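Batch 3, record 17
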Amino acid sequence: MSQQIVVPLGGSPTARFVTVAGTVDAEGIDTSHNTTLQRFTLEFNLSDLHPTALPPPLSGYSLRASAQAGLTSINNSDDAPEWTWAVDGARTIIREGKLVLVVDLAGQGGPDSEIVYHDAVLSSLTYQVSVLVS
Amino acid sequence: MLTITNVEGAQRVDALLPGTGTNNRLFVFTGTAIVGWRAPDDDQLRSDQAELDISALHDNQLFNPRSDLAMVSAWPASLHATSDADQVTWAVDKATGEIAPDGHLLAKFSLALQGASGAFSRLAYEVLVQALSVKVAGISAYPPVVRLAGQPVTLYVSLLLDQAVAPPGATIRLSHNIGDVTLPPEVQVSGNSTMITGTVGLGFPKGSQMITLTAANDISRASTDFTVIA
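Prediction for the assembled complex:
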């Protein structure tokens, strides 16, 4: 699921204030095989997820962005001695003209523990990114 | 009260919004606060408060407590637990925004934690502010050197705001650093204007000296100097 708000701004036909939000799968974040804290970095291409709000190429514009991400679903059993779930930070970068959300994660568990609950319906991370394009 | 030791990834976006009320500006502040709250070795549910000075973290941006609106949301970003606990809980029970009388935007959080050897390490936040105030972008005085010979002397003072004022206008306070100068205490910038220029009556001080003029409102100030040669 993704949502977006685009507010045209004065001064330039391309100037706009964009807020995009949604939930995305975080495949590969499985801590069930290691009881020590592990760190992961995931990237999500926001220009692909929101092609009408953040169409490439964005390289020629002045961009200011403010990003945040959060956990939406976690799962574990009590077989693990310790559990940790963390979004350490979220930021954006421009790569090949597209806006990319970069999320730093950490997880710790043990048998049957996942930072995310892999399911056909549920996703794992929620994000909200506001971008000033001018 | 919990102490937030640091904030990582503080980010900010702001945009002018067109249309009626051209003062309107939308601010978005995000970041991850390091809470570092560790649960005692029992399974008691505990609640506590935490506070963040958003203004201090984000370029010292100040707001007007009488006109600006803030909305705060927050959620747990880093959680830890062990199998020592019978019950575990992490919660952001409440998140609110308050603009202090000095203009600082404060985000206030009510948090809860439960579980032996557990921790509530990081808190993610997002703050939206609709600002209805304008900032004083600059002030200038002309001529920069006032010679008292050849009276009368006229001093022109110009104020520049960072955006147009919504009708009916805005009041800007004037002040100076010399005791025996008389100035109007404030000027009124009319609606839909970004600038005002006018003459001000000065009671000039004795002797030659440099005078600093300051224009200010609740969220900003700007100063300029001119010299009086008696």
